[in-house]
Amino acid sequence: TLNLSSGSTKTLNGTLTLNGTTNHTSGILSLSSGDVVNNSGTYNITGGNIFLGGTAAQFNNTGTFDVNMDGTPITNSGTFDNDGTFTRSGGTGTLTISCKFTNDGTFNHNTGSKLGFNSTFTQNGTLNLNGSEELETGTCTINS
Q1: φ/ψ of residue 47, rounded to 5
Q2: Which of 15, 24, 29, 118 has its CA 20 to 30 A from that of 71?
Q3: pTM of the predicted structure, to 2 decimals
Q4: pLDDT of 144 over the 80 cut
Q5: 3-class secondary structure for the chain?
Q6: Which domain holds residue 6?
Q7: How many domains does the chain have?
């Protein structure tokens, strides 16, 4: 189990592979251009954010990524690729994803009033909008 909870910034330099459980409750996980996170475990985020700085910063999810918060948990100019399951399980307001986002897996938006993508959103997998009253996107491509 990896716990990110100090409220400060944790800077990644290289590649981080997550096979177990990660609990991100506060603070910033900062990736620079060329840094990569590969999550095949369970990543729970309830506070703070993941800063994908630089266009080559990459977060690859093949496991479970669970968001239990409002706000902007993933930001900047990098890319989040979901080949696993991305679920918003908590929060009542707006969830905004402010990076390039590709969904080739399953995306479940189970709660909250609004789901927003401020950058490019590419939808190739399954998108379930169970709690969202509104979907807002920048550039959006829906292939399935």
Answers
A1: -170, 165
A2: 15
A3: 0.96
A4: no
A5: CEEECCCCEEEECCEEEECCEEEECCCEEEECCCCEEEECCEEEECCCEEEECCCCCEEEECCEEEEECCEEEEEEEEEEEECCEEEEEECCCEEEEEEEEEECCEEEECCCCEEEECCCEEECCEEEECCCCEEEECCEEECC
A6: 2-142
A7: 1
